[in-house]
Amino acid sequence: MSAGMSRFQDFELDPNAYQLRRNGVIVRLERIPLELLCLLVDRAGELVSREEILAQIWGKDVFIDSEHSINTAIRKIRRALNDDADAPRLVVTIPAKGYRFVAPVLVSNAEIPNGELNTNQEAGLVALPSSVPASLHPETAKYRRAGLLSGAALLLIAGAFALIRYVWFQPSAPSPSSASSISREETAVPRLPDMPTIAVLPFTNLGEKPQQQYFSDGITDELITGLSRLPVLFVIARNSSFAYKGKAIKEGELGRELGAQYLLEGTVARTADRVRISIHLVYAATGTEMWAQPYDRPLQDLPAVQGEIVDGVVTTLGLIFRLRAMKVPHLGKALLSKNAEALDVFLRAVEYSWLMTKDDNARARQWAEKAILLDPTFSEAYAHLGWNYSRAVDLQFSQHPDLDLKTSSDLALKALALDEGNFDALGLLSRNDLLQSRFDLAIANARRAIELNPNFAMGYFLLGQALIFAGRPEEGVRETEMAMRLDPAANDFYGLNVGFAYLVMNRSTEAIPVLKRYVSVLPADLYAHLWLAIAYVELGRKTEPRAEAAEVVRSNPRDFLLPANQALAKQWKTDLRTAGIK
Question: Which one in 207, 343, 350, 436 has a CA-CA gap of 20 to 30 Å to 370?
């Protein structure tokens, strides 16, 4: 039985395809907001509490800032549906309670056995009420399945929300008619789901007693179970990963055979009174280490020690993969800290930073400062705190831009003093040079960062942007394309440079869709709205420039970074005034 497609107003919500469409055109909506929309539509007419949303979408055992995360997801849903929070047509907020989907919903029938379908219904469509009878049992209401409510005329909503996720993420089997035409090599490689996939490999027992392998296997089992609760991650089943126990196989081959993008590996050394565990997260295709963490604990209470380590790893990986789900650039290096708590705090700082609002930037600063307090030698935390001060200047949050830029650069230098190979700190220096219109220095520092790490996608993005500002848009696009190849999950983010380059090259028509895709990832970024306003004015539009200008003016900006080309800069200033930005 497959889930059905819901229709409301001029939208279609197709859970099987994991798509929202408007008049047949796909509306971009990230996974978490899309899952939440499925839940609300599935429960149309009912109050869905914030507690239910947290449990169903994120899981009860995942640590998040629930208020912020739910509010962000609802905001993205409303933007996708063009729904006004003050005068909602679709999603209504119930203060201090939750949300209700209020529009009438039609559901395409799924595979319903003969005799269960009311033949008087319109072809394939079932109208859902805007309210649910009080007599409806709460367990039945939680997830409706395709079929009858009981003997009543209404059909249940086709397919359970949980079933949607199960069906969507299972590899699809070939039909009997086509199976014979598919080679053994083709069927040997599982189809990757549309989310990060990870295989937890059996941890290697380095202890003095081989019979203690049960402890290593127990850690592995607990990690598989814990990671399976994360909604942003697809975890390969235990039987599949344990089939490789004791086998020496390269990461790339393992990843292909298991259908896993990431591998979690580890060793366990247990003595009479201590246990030492080393864990590594590896990107399977290249064998690149993304994260590593050692644990050294006294072995006083074995279950408690095992639980502490598993909870710590699940929390850290949950944060790492939530960042990937945001489609922002990856950090580009293995995350190392002597203090596991410092690493978790650092990842929270990164997550808040990418939301790009004034309040979130302030929260990110607090988390980054706490990470440094927990581990004063954590080079990446200093670099990230420097990025925070730089972003405050870039997005017009700072009240003292000159002082904050100096603080940012000082923190970058501190990060380099702790780790001379910290390419992210060099990227920060490049950004600070750009913000001061020192384009040649910005280009030079970005190139230095790439020399330290030729796979630093963000370095190519920074280099591309500096080149475009300096009046070399074609070169800038080439460098940006390198970033896209290295980090394809964040292509819409890197597309900001491409849209900017099109604008510099007087190709506004091509710039607009690229910049709009960027805004779908980071809607609070000042410059994307600024450049969209310019592009719309250049095309002679009237309404759109004002809408983009309203987004810019909301930040109360003082000044903007403009291209080195003086004639172009002058023209853009005129365009901004036309849009309503003084």
Answer: 436
